[in-house]
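User: Hi! I'm working on a homework problem where we have to compare a predicted structure to a textbook description. Could you give me the structure for the chain below?
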Amino acid sequence: MAALAMTVLLCACGTEANKVSYNLSQEADNFNVVRQITVINCIQGDVLFQMTGRMSIKADASDNQLEVIVEDGNNYVKHFIGLSDNVTYVVEDLNLGANDVAKYKYTLNFNPEMWIPVETGIID
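Assistant: Happy to help. Predicted structure tokens:
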């Protein structure tokens, strides 16, 4: 009976990869991991912006957006990133070197060429 119980318990736990994935997700959602989001325009291949910091990220398919909660000191800030058919994103966990990052600092970098169109011309 004990052997059967152990077999059921071991099978219910899943693979080691599932456990690691769950643990990493929990650490990130508890703001213990520095992450970087890169949002990319797939048609042009341009990076629209990047955001780096301790954040929890939830993909909301019903609204076609990412909901990002960032820890900023004793406060939390919520951002929404709209997605479309030609906009995608990549999230990286930056655990390596996280000790070099200030605990409650986050950055948000926009690609200015995507928002401020500038045309140059020659005037005689």
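For your comparison, note the following. The first strand starts at residue 34 and ends at 41. Helices lie at 2-13, 16-29, 112-115. Good luck with the assignment!
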